[in-house]
Amino acid sequence: MKTRLAGAIAALLLLTSCGVLSAGKLVLPAAEDLESVTITVDQLDLTVTGGDSIARLLDLLRRSVKENTGRPSVQDIPSERAGLARIDFGFRTGGTGTVFLYREGARLFLEQPYQGIYEMDSELRLDQLQAIEQEG
Known about the structure:
Radius of gyration: 16 Å
Helix content: 25-40%
């Protein structure tokens, strides 16, 4: 019995540390783990490199989260729509992670596939992201 309980607690801690059970919070990578961040909107591609620029971008995204909508994210890519922004995090160790920004009416959402959908501050604009890219 104690062995099963210890195993269940260890599994829960492992899932929490990996971000699988994030208690409704947005899980973004650490800046030091990233080599680049690429933002693609329609025909526009922005690439942010450099630790300080990546850290500012991640901070901007974190500060812009208003709330977890409670709506599940159950697909790899949200349905295609005009203005869908794809944000790819390129890891130093290889591979990528992706989140999506899109509008529904006047509201702005960030969707992290299979993690959740978060309402963002509707004042977040592409030019803020471009400014970070140009500084880097």
